[in-house]
Amino acid sequence: MPRHWAALDYAVAALVGVILFAAIRHSVSRAVEFSYGGGVLGYHPLPLTWPLAMLLIVAAAIAVALRRRRPVLMLGVLLAGSLLVTTLTGPDSSTLTYFIPVAYVLYLVAATYERKRAAVRVLAAVFATLLADAVLMEATGGGFFPPGGLISVGLCVIIAWSAGYTVRQRRRYAVRLQDEAASKAVAEERLRIARELHDVVAHSMSVIAVQAGYGQYVIDTQPADARSALGAIQATSREALDEMRRMLGALRQADEGDRGHGAPLAAGGSAEPQDSAVGASAPLFPAPGLADLDRLLSRTASAGVRVDITRRGQPRDLPASIDLSAYRIVQEALTNVVKHARTSSCQVLIGYGHDHLTLEVTDNGAGLPEMAGAGLPQHGSAGTIGAGFAADAGLGSGGPALLTRGAGSGRNGPGDLPGSGHGIIGMRERVSLLGGEFSAGPRPGYGFGVSAHIPLPAGPRG
């Protein structure tokens, strides 16, 4: 319980004690001075009326001071005290001031109750006590009790309950908004991780599939080429594992940060280690960016697709999220070329404008107007992986068929990777999150093109 709220309750308890002392003292004085003989029962003051009244005043102050610990119990103490005060002082309506602490505690009960049945019971007890007080006053003083006082106290109780119920609803709404925000953040993080994994795995596995198919084809006739293909597979798989370790290490670091400090992982996916001992099994490497394209182009060339890259404008330092997304877009576009284009070359354009970044990946291969399962353009069919590589390697007309046929199964081999359309969807989502424009589809005549225009934040160009 925060100390400032406890201090407020203690201050209110002291004020309530003063108010009740003045009101009940007045009622006791009148009760001792006059003996009301009207009503059904009449009224005769007890010898210990004032000491008992003081005890009830102290009990009310204590109940107000401790209301946050046991609100329902403290409310019950106040309701019982109200009946006792009315019994001690007779028909004097000033004893209804005892409902001031009742309303104060009732507000907290209305703001914190858990079950509606409990709330109904509390309200019923409060109004039953008020009605019992009215009956006692009427029975001991005849027509002395003014009905206006009862109505005023009833309205005070209703206002206190309504205020507490409103606060309760607002708190529940705030909690619901926080839960929805947390769920949305988790969903967005999962989507980001899915895009990262898709981009890393899809590109690397496409290269590995082509190299494995070619190595299987030439292992008997050209052992040196098969050995080179195995070396490329080893290098590509090692790089893919390094990237996956980087991602998993960043996720582990973000999870530890959430538990320790509540710090989320940056949206761009790059994370600098806060501790040098994050884990030897999952070291954190810098997230890839456009500066790492040469390694990506070399890997693509090893899969049989030569990449001609053109840079326009003055290169500049990019924000980490844009740099990573741009790299992933180029990577996924080249993956689609390797998997579907049936070509031995493609072109990459990177344009640095004053306020935007332009990315274009085009080829002159086979571009089909539909994409399975996504309603988006797709390159060719998955069964033609490695055709361009086979053409460059001099495999002849039988090369693609051999590369896409499993050696020992009679079914489609590693080259036959059916496309689900997630690559273009992922690229479109990345560009959309950065506020840019994206297009992908067949080029006029023959081939396929991917284009992305990403706005850049204002700042000095590097």
What do you see in this structure?
By secondary structure, the protein is α+β, with helices and mostly antiparallel strands. The protein has helices at 3-33, 49-65, 71-89, 99-112, 116-141, 147-218, 223-260, 293-302, 320-340, 387-392, 399-403, 422-433; strands spanning 306-312, 345-352, 356-363, 367-368, 378-379, 437-442, 448-455. The chain is built from 12 helices and 7 strands. Strands 1-2-3-7-6 form a 5-stranded mixed sheet, with helices on one face. A two-stranded antiparallel ribbon has the order 4-5. A hairpin with a 3-residue loop joins strand 2 (345-352) and strand 3 (356-363). Helix 2 (49-65) runs antiparallel to helix 3. The two termini are 53 Å apart.
List keywords for this structure.
single chain, 462 residues, alpha+beta, 7 strands
Concise account of the structure shown:
This protein has 462 residues and is of the alpha+beta class.
Largest sheet: 5 strands, mixed
**What's the β-strand tally?**
7
Shape: rod-shaped
In sequence order, what are the helices and strands, one letter per element? HHHHHHHHEHEEEEHHHEE
Low-confidence stretches: 261-284, 368-420
Structural class: alpha+beta
The helical percent reads: 55-70%
Radius of gyration: 40 Å
Mean residue pLDDT? 74
Bin the strand percentage: 5-15%
Strand line-up in the sheet with most strands: 1-2-3-7-6
| CA(first)-CA(last) distance | 53 Å
Q: Helix segment count? A: 12
